[in-house]
Amino acid sequence: MSDIETARIAQNPRFKELVHERTRFGWTLTILMLLVYFGFIGLIAFDKSLLALKIGSATTSLGLILGVAVIIFAFILTGIYVQRANGRFDDLTAALKRDLGR
């Protein structure tokens, strides 16, 4: 791809919209994951007794449940990103290709 083509793509309003939406959405999901993860790590560091609470009569603790919840939350965020990428981002990419005649 030549520098002229690259500049033409970079100046396209649909390309700018795609980059802006992907960046904003990626940062939003990243911040959510960091809040959950560091919140869990903060509990480990500062309130071990809370995480040691037994759930019901079993040997399962609240810390184990929350740890699994952090992992499940990461999978959910991944699913949300895939859904957005296969929907909105693919639509924007297709529109950009039409604009560029490809």
Describe it.
The longest helix has 39 residues, at 62-100. The relative contact order is 0.13. The radius of gyration is 21 Å and the shape is elongated. With 102 residues, it is mostly helical. The chain is 84% helix and 0% strand. It has helices at 3-11, 13-46, 48-51, 62-100. It is built from 4 helices and no strands.
Which range does the strand content fall in?
Answer: under 5%
Order of helices and strands: HHHH
> Count of DSSP helices?
4
Helical content band: over 70%
> What's the average pLDDT?
93
The oligomeric status of these chains comes to: single chain
Main β sheet profile: none
Enumerate the spans where pLDDT stays under 50 for 5 or more consecutive residues: none
How are the SSEs placed, and which strands pair?
Blueprint: H1 3-11, H2 13-46, H3 48-51, H4 62-100
Short description:
The protein is an all-alpha fold. The chain has helices spanning 3-11, 13-46, 48-51, 62-100.
Tags for this model:
102 residues, 0% strand
